[in-house]
Amino acid sequence: MIRPATADDAPAVRTIWNTLIRETTVTFNSIGKTEAEVAAFLENGPVFVADIGGVCGYASFGPFRAGVGYQRIAEHSIVLTDDARGKGLGRGLMNAIAEQAESQGINSLIAGVSGENTAGQAFHAHLGFNQVGYIPEAGYKFGRYIDLVLMQKRL
Predict the structure, then answer these.
(1) What average pLDDT does range 67-87 have in this prediction?
(2) What is the pLDDT of residue 103?
(3) CA 6 – CA 145 distance, rounded (Å)
(4) Per-residue pLDDT at 70 exceeds 90
(5) What is the CATH number of domain 2-154?
(6) What is the mean pLDDT of residues 47-73?
(7) Contact 39, 125 (CB under 8 A)
(8) CA distances from 102 to 57, 72, 105, 112, 154 (A)
(9) Domain-by-domain residue ranges, the chain?
């Protein structure tokens, strides 16, 4: 089930997020999220979760860049646990945030995908995102530079 996140989802979201931070290059961030940071993230939303007897993923969007000229474009984030993949939950989360974004006047979603995350790139392409940018060595994690692929979908 895809639903809006609540404060009660904070421990599960924090666990998922911090696992990605510690173990993957899906995010270039190397500092774990605190309880307060996750609580603020959920409160400031919008955040949706995939829940199949427990939260196994989440998706959100927010400003792409500061400034009034960018108010109609947003950058999103989507994360699923390994065991939740391949069940349509990612598509469900993306549909939920796209609908919410459109209702807020957003006309494009941007995905910043790690160059090492080929599954994430393929997922976004399957959902109609097009690669619009490539930044070599944009991130640094685990002692190496990592490229960033920018993908866009017009809503």
Answers:
(1) 94
(2) 97
(3) 35
(4) yes
(5) 3.40.630.30
(6) 96
(7) no
(8) 22, 9, 5, 19, 10
(9) 2-154
Closest by CA position to 111, among listed 81, 155, 143 = 155
Q: Can you tell me the distance from the alpha carbon of 82 to that of 66, in angstroms, rounded to the nearest whole number?
A: 33
What are the structure tokens assigned to 155, written together?
A: 């809503």
- State pLDDT tens for residues 92-138: 999 999 999 999 999 999 999 999 999 999 999 999 999 999 999 99
pLDDT given for residue 82 in this prediction: 87
- E strands of the chain, at which residues? 2-4, 47-51, 55-63, 73-80, 108-114, 130-141, 144-154
Q: For residues 63 and 114, give the distance between their C-alpha atoms in angstroms, rounded to a whole number.
A: 19
Q: Rounded to 5 degrees, what angle do the CA atoms 131, 28, 42 make?
A: 90
Digit-coded pLDDT (tens) for 7-32: 999 999 999 999 999 999 999 999 99
Q: Residue 34 is encoded by which pair of tokens?
A: 């605190």
